[in-house]
Automatic annotation (TrEMBL):
This is Glutathione transport system permease protein GsiD. Keywords: Cell membrane, Membrane, Transmembrane, Transmembrane helix, Transport. Residues 1-24 are annotated as: Disordered. It is found in: Cell membrane. Belongs to the binding-protein-dependent transport system permease family. The chain crosses the membrane at residues 37-59, 102-125, 145-172, 211-233, 269-290. Its main location: membrane.
Amino acid sequence: MEPAGQPAARVDPAATPPPRSPRRRNRVLRAVVGRPASAASVGVVALLVVLAIIGPLVAPHDPDAQNLANRFADPSWTHLFGTDDFGRDVLSRIITASRITIIAPLISVGIAVAIGLPLGLLAAIRGGWVDAVTGRLADTVLALPALVGALAIVAVLGPGLVNTMIAVGIIFTPTMFRIVRGAALAVTEETFVQSATAIGSSQRRILAVHVLPNIAAPVMVQVTILMGVALLVEASLSFLGLGVQPPDASWGSMLKAAYASQFDAPYAVIPPGVAMVLTVLSFNTIGDAIRDAVGIRRRM
């Protein structure tokens, strides 16, 4: 009961965020698929996902079948992209390697999100010595060049796809931590978060209801960018022999074999190189579309 003579407590509408309508929730999706460049990029990524799932069923040849009598064969109807130094069909190996193209970035970016997201939220909410310690750890990892740091971690864990992507995920974690921390700090300064704190809402509820939904957009932009970077790092480590091990196919290892055989088959670098460029460009284009959609949403 309110004391006599005192007006009933009223909630300021400006202190709570407006409800998200389905139209506002779908604005980012419409912005991504509504542009020709980003829609084509989504199509490329979707095609890679499909090939990663059903690649062995649609590959025209066995990607590991060797035919030394047919080494460096020119492109033909039998081998659309020719053959490599062991006589293996290049198109079949590119299709098979699309599984690595999807799995490798998912592992590394998943590790970065799994570690960087909670640490960034914790640093933003708690502050104090928690923020100082996590920030200094992130600065320490960021001080190392990405490829050098990944090489050091792979040297400890050993070569292989999983170990390589663990190393890349550890290198990506400070970047994700900084993005999450900065976005969360900006949200916690908003009026509706301060009002929720004043009325006694728990930190868990504030994170789930107010902070996480409002930092989802910048996190998604960073995820799409890191997916492309992870693909390049994985290809670089595979090129150096520290990533995917033979006879498994990887675009990076295919580039390494093509580079070693450039005088016998100078065109061999084109298929894996073009595939890698298109994939990285697609991830970056999707990230740019999400970023632009978020900017439009904030201005309205």
